[in-house]
Amino acid sequence: MKWLITGGCGFIGTNLIAKLVTDVSNRIRVVDNLNVGKRDDLGRVCQFSEVFPSDRAELPPWTNGHPVQLAVGDILDEDLALRAALGADVIVHLAAKTGVPFSLENPRLDCTTNILGLLNYLEAARGCGVKRFIFASSGAPIGECEPPIHEEMACHPVSPYGASKLAGEAYCSAYYHSFGVETVALRFGNVYGPGAERKTSVVPKFIRRAIKGEPLEIFGDGKQTRDFIFVDDLVRAVILAAQANGVGGHIFQIATNRETTVTEITEKLVRHLDDAGIRNVQVRHAHPRHGDVKRNFSDTSKAKRILGWEAETDLDSGIGRTVTWWLSNRHDQSS
Question: What predicted TM-score, i.e. pTM, was given to this entire model?
């Protein structure tokens, strides 16, 4: 298969590519503006050739040079989207402005990037005849509810980020029903694992602070819950969604179907850090953060029934593997 992956230098993208390159028949093209993920992050998991899209010329053939190509550019460049998608079998759209805090600080840029950037690649899929389109969504469109979240729930987002992801799901549905693009929206849980050193979500943020000797800051009482999914499990879901038959137009919850409080995951992290020699980690509480939902975990039965997928990595094992990786790569994490 020929895979076009936006945001492929990021955490999920590099883990996905590390899996895809184990099959020598795959060809991969990455579009990334390098604002978050870097060339070194991609280079850590594969060899790649860099193509230069700025001259508006046709990109090199998919079979040219290394099986992975990197085109440095922004998803708001609609011309680049069309040229990058030409010949692709599947687009995996991971690039986005992620997270509630950024969307509260800059809702306009959250909207522009997450909606218009997605639209550019849906249009590219339509114009270039790309069969399958995978959209990275989240549980944020649902908003406050009594969990577990499932695909039939009405959405009432409480943050601009949730609103932009909901709009993305709506555009995916429209492009499937109007134009026949086989869109699949995957609502990712809170993803963690090796390679997440540039992310600002709770697990990498807490590990980073602990290594620096800084206290771990929990917003509110720590009883808020999330569904934490190990990145290897999520990558399997993306690949299955790209290859399964009859899933066009579907939304799937991709998480673990388990509810974990922020206090619980903090305690697991502190224990694994202590075992690894990072001791006397301090924990403090701060005021609750606007836009955060109180409880969030997912019913993943639809993904199990239709995709044949379910999470396999338990939280304790996943946290242990993440801490081990992080401490083994500390020299790469000065930024």
Answer: 0.93
Residue 14 has pLDDT above 70, yes or no: yes
Do 213 and 147 touch, CB atoms closer than 8 A?
no
Known catalytic membership, residue 171 = no
Contact partners, residue 5, CB within 8 Å, separation at least 6: 13, 16, 17, 28, 29, 30, 31, 91, 92, 94
The whole-angstrom separation of Cα 297 and Cα 257 is 6
Confidence bin at 51 (pLDDT 50/70/90)? confident
Are the C-beta atoms of residues 113 and 301 closer than 8 Å to each other?
A: no
Q: Are residues 161 and 103 in contact, defined by beta-carbon separation less than 8 angstroms?
A: yes
> Is-contact 226 260, C-beta < 8 A?
yes
Rounded to whole angstroms, the Cα distance separating 308 from 301 reads 9
Q: Is 261 exposed, middle or buried (0-12, 13-18, 19+ CB in 10 A)?
A: middle
Which of 161, 175, 176, 192 is catalytic? The answer is 161
Q: What is the pLDDT of residue 310?
A: 97
Query: Which tokens is 41 given?
Result: 């992050």
Whether residue 53 has pLDDT greater than 80: no
